[in-house]
Amino acid sequence: MREPGFFVPPMLAVTAQEPFDDSQWIYEVKWDGYRCQIHWNGTLRLYSRQGHDLLTQFPDLQDAGTFLPFPMVLDAELVAWIDGHPSFAALQRKEPVPHRLIVFDCLFAQNRWVLHEPLATRRALLQERVQSAGPLVVSEAVDGQGLALLHAVREQGLEGVMAKDRHSLYHPGQRVRFWQKFLAEYRQWALVPYVSRRKHHGGWLWAIVSAETQLPLGLLPAPRSWSVPEELQQTSADMVPLNPPLHAEVSYRMLTDTGRMRHGRIRRWRR
Questions:
Q1: By CB distance 3.0 to 4.6 Å, which of 39, 60, 147, 219 could disulfide with 4?
Q2: For 173-189, what is each residue's pLDDT tens digit?
Q3: Is 107 within 8 Å of 2 (Cβ atoms)?
């Protein structure tokens, strides 16, 4: 394998069936951004998960390599940083906000590739040789305490937790079970004051509104258990009011900056 500059397809995690604690695993915050790969060899290259150039989209990161001590290849997450928190919406919109590279793995250092060395060795190399400086932030990890970290992540409204077997090797381009992600899920009871006649794969959409603030949370496919009243089918209105509104418990991964649900779904409902 060649020196820095040669893109390595990133190793990917599976979603855990249930969060867990394990003394042989380490746990890190899962940041809500773009997976990226940092190559520094006097010239900085910043690759997306698919191997595309990211520096043209985020030119404020062009000096990141100067904070590295020697040629390196690092696995990282690129995030937009607003008021001490990541904003995926700002990242997507390419807003002129500060960006950070959260570095969590080392693939090349000291003139050699370390893909086939255990994660514990790679992380030790990362922590010894790379400091949080400029746009670079070295990810912190906790040993064995995945459930406690997930609880803290939920309290902070973050995306989730990455769980990694400390003995795992790096398998480029593969989705492996010795990296698992715990996705934080948030739930609330909401109102459904309207339904939409706009078809969604042959079905109806429910307009979900916060019961507390009355602000819209988004449109979700109506549950199959809901029978469309005949009077609703006969109207030509795009958004049809329900009187009285339905109540639905919804779950979602995160709320956007505008208060809309990401990855929302209806868990149960009642009249």
A1: 39
A2: 999 999 999 998 888 89
A3: no
Count of structural domains within the chain: 2
Secondary-structure breakdown of the chain: helix, strand, coil percentages, each rounded to the nearest 5: 15, 45, 40
As a whole number of angstroms, the distance between CA 100 and CA 81 comes to 7
Residues 197 and 89 in one domain: no
87 occurs within a structural domain: yes
CA atoms within 13 A on the CB side of 3: 11
Domain that holds residue 87: 12-183
- 123: domain CATH number? 3.30.470.30
Query: Which helix or strand (DSSP H or E) is residue 161 part of?
Result: strand 160-165
Task: Name the pTM for this structure.
Answer: 0.81
Last residue of a domain, one of 130, 165, 183: 183
User: Which of 149, 48, 130, 58 minimizes the C-alpha distance to 98?
Assistant: 58
Q: For residue range 102-125, what is the model confidence (pLDDT) as tens digits? A: 999 999 999 999 999 999 999 999
Q: How far apart are CA 158 and CA 149, in angstroms?
A: 11
Locus of tokens 């030509």: 236
* 42, 132: one domain: yes
User: Which of the listed residues 127, 150, 183 is the one where a domain comes to its end?
Assistant: 183
CA distance 135 to 12: 24
Specify whether the CB–CB gap between 241 and 251 falls below 8 A: no
Report how far apart, in Å, the C-alpha atoms of 244 and of each of 101, 209, 217, 250 are. 49, 14, 19, 19
Which are the catalytic amino acids?
30
Asked whether residue 68 falls in the same domain as residue 144, the answer is: yes
- Which residues of the chain have a pLDDT value below 50? none
